[in-house]
Amino acid sequence: MPVDRELWGTVWRSLTSQRLRALLTLLGIILGVGTLVVLSSAVEGMGVYMRRTLTEASGEDVISVSRKWFDQDTGKKAPPLNRFDARALEQSERLAGSRVLHQYSTRAEFGERWGQAVWVVGTVPEALNFYMLELARGRFLTAADVDNRVPVVILGASTVRKVLAPGTRAIGATIRLKGERFKVVGVLKKKPSLGRGGGFRTWDGSVIIPETAFLDRFAKTKDLREVVIRGTPSLLEERGLSGLAATAKAIVKWRHHGVQNFKVTDPAEQARSRDLAQLVVGGLEAAIALVCLGVGGINIMNIMLVSVSQRTREIGIRRALGATREDIRQMFLLEALVLSATGGMLGVAGGAAVGWGLCQILTSTLGTWPFAFPVWQSLLGLVASVVIGALFGSYPARRAAELDPIVCLRNE
């Protein structure tokens, strides 16, 4: 039904003359739509961040095998994951190689600084390329370091700040691990890392030493927590990461006499879990936004009812001058629609601004966190706000239209 220019002018004058009332009416819709936009932006940004971080942390062609104590299906026990399993995986023709992360948590000492917990990792020179690490300065491990069990250490990006005093030159400094001195020869660039299987903690919070030095000083058994594997290009092209996981699983299971007391990362299952998590979070954000919009709709109805009670004399005068019941109904319904649509637009703008600010905070703490503007969710929020305005504004509009003009004119 077309709305004439005079009615628009009437609605505009009514809203501008009661700014506080209009602001209170807008507030609920702004909060509802803004909540939807902020949460949607955060969820989409989180998905992009997680996918990119996972790729940067270990690459797209990497899986891991990590230990379990027994086969949960049969209850049978077998020797735990060990170095001989890692050697079998490394020598397989279908795998591009495997690397073992020998890990040990201890505290590092530097001068008077003591008690800084670090994650000690024992590995080999090939780990630099295998894990796609980069050096900020200094050098990485060499074959001579491994062969001669040289006590040298490479510090993670955040470990430098934890174990060295401010202003100390990292390269050439000496730290103590379990009372033994290790010379710092390199510092890694900042790198994200996500746990796989047994769970590597983080490269940034670690110190890296030669594998042989680790085995001499920290390792107590031949058991392993995790073996990381990279597939050959031909296998990845033929069967993908799922084929790589199946190959690794078959090798280790054969060595363990059919007992699967280990777990292999399944990329397809990880993707399904990630999608399910995003679906659940998306459902929660929709529920929260609907609750907020519902509250905003109730707010619109309540304030419009107050407006009707305060404007009964105006309604009576308009009726006396020839306005019909439909004109009165349209006037109040249009006010509700204008308020809800305006609240929806302000909610989208405010939600986008808050989402962008949240991304800046997360970027400063976690690295580059992308800002994703949720186009479809924003459109949904706008449509929902207009629908809410129409639904909750219809009752006050009908109530105003049904007032008796004589009674309204008697009202002072």
Question: What is the fold's blueprint, element by element?
Answer:
Elements: H1 5-17, H2 19-58, E1 62-67, H3 83-91, E2 95-100, E3 102-110, E4 113-123, H4 127-130, E5 135-138, H5 143-147, E6 152-155, H6 159-163, E7 174-177, E8 180-188, E9 206-210, H7 211-217, E10 226-231, H8 233-255, E11 262-264, H9 267-310, H10 312-320, H11 325-366, H12 375-401, H13 405-410
Parallel strand pairs: 4-9, 6-8
Antiparallel strand pairs: 1-10, 1-11, 2-10, 3-4, 3-7, 5-8, 6-9, 7-8
Please summarize the sheet with the most strands.
6 strands, mixed, barrel
Strand order of the largest sheet: 3-4-9-6-8-7
**Cα-to-Cα separation, first versus last residue:** 33 Å
Low-pLDDT stretches: 194-200
Helix content: 55-70%
Residue fraction in strands: 15-25%
Shape: elongated
What is the count of distinct domains? 2
Number of helices: 13
Mean pLDDT: 77
- Can you write the helix and strand succession as a string? HHEHEEEHEHEHEEEHEHEHHHHH
Decide which structural class fits the backbone: alpha+beta
By DSSP, the count of extended strands is 11
Query: What is the radius of gyration?
Result: 33 Å
